[in-house]
């Protein structure tokens, strides 16, 4: 049986899943330590978690590039980094749900109060009350998990673009021609 030629000669899923799990575990660890030291936060994904995501995406893409013998295209960089971020987002979203349901119950109250203060600056009257009702209705542990996954997936769409610019290392055309002979 002949193998179909694809843009991905080596499967990147095992690397992306492994680094996604490591990323999610690190974010879980630092969230829990932050909760123990500083108390409840006011948002499910703290800003410095984006840095953790970026660093582990970098290592995932480097591992994939090493598996490809040092050469990786922009597309391969982007896709492997994107899937690492998606897997990390999904694993971390489950943690956020468990965390807000059983451990950090104040997170939702803090999130609602900070959101209400922000809304007071921009809207008033009936519209403000309607928005507060909607916010209270959707402020559940499931919503916090979905919000965390959405935020991290959105960040995961853009971080691999930056990394791909610096990590891609494509073969020169002469090397490709010589290797095909």
Pick out its properties:
single chain, mainly alpha, 181 residues
Tell me briefly what this model is.
This protein is mainly alpha-helical and 181 residues long. The chain is built from seven helices and no strands. It has helices at 13-38, 48-67, 74-103, 106-120, 125-138, 141-167, 173-180.
Describe the structure.
It is a single chain. The protein has 181 residues and is an all-alpha fold. The chain contains seven helices and no strands. α1 runs parallel beside α3 (74-103) and α4 (106-120) packs antiparallel against α5. The model has no long low-confidence stretch (mean pLDDT 88). It has helices at residues 13-38, 48-67, 74-103, 106-120, 125-138, 141-167, 173-180. Helix content is 77%, strand content 0%.
What's the helix and strand layout?
Layout: H1 13-38, H2 48-67, H3 74-103, H4 106-120, H5 125-138, H6 141-167, H7 173-180
Helix pairs in contact: 1-2, 1-3, 2-3, 2-6, 3-6, 4-5
